[in-house]
Amino acid sequence: MINRLPFLLIMFICLISTIIVELLISLLLGIRNKRDILNIVLANCLTNPLVVSITNIVNVYIGYNESYIVLYILELLVVIVEGLLYKKYLIYKKINPFIISLILNLCSYLFGLLILWSLHIKSHVYVAFCFICVIIIVGVYYGRRQRSDKLIRW
């Protein structure tokens, strides 16, 4: 089903869903500053299209199983690159920027697995669901600990 969609539409859907998931989780983590939220969106606009493009190219020319190996390597690089960007540009300093990057990217990746499962494509759904539950619980815990950041600072 998803393979019949135009490539640019797939990239747009992946980018928008990643931004939505990562913004929701970042709000749960207590990130409320407008500049920080914008930086998270911009970091995703930089990394997500590259990951989706390279993974799809590998999937078409080399194979589906090999694309997962490439995807995991790319996701690790994205966590590092976004962690460096967050370290330099985020005002929010209560959680290590690399941990923020790991949590946000893990949640968006696992959300993507759930979407693929709903489209009847093989994936590790049960593991993804458990990880999402754990990440949301951790996010709520950190969000509640930060009583001074209850409102979004615009």
What does this structure look like?
This protein has 154 residues and is mostly helical. The protein has one domain (2-146). It is built from five helices and no strands. α1 packs antiparallel against α2 (34-61), α1 (7-29) packs parallel to α5 (125-145) and α3 (64-89) runs antiparallel to α4 (97-118). The chain is globular. Residues 147-154 have low confidence and may be disordered.
Structural class by sheet pairing and helices: mainly alpha
Q: Which band does the percent of strand residues land in?
A: under 5%
Number of domains: 1
Radius of gyration computed on alpha carbons: 16 Å
Mean pLDDT: 80
Brief write-up:
The chain has 154 residues and is mainly alpha-helical. The chain has helices at residues 7-29, 34-61, 64-89, 97-118, 125-145.
Topology:
Layout: H1 7-29, H2 34-61, H3 64-89, H4 97-118, H5 125-145
Index terms:
5 helices; disordered C terminus
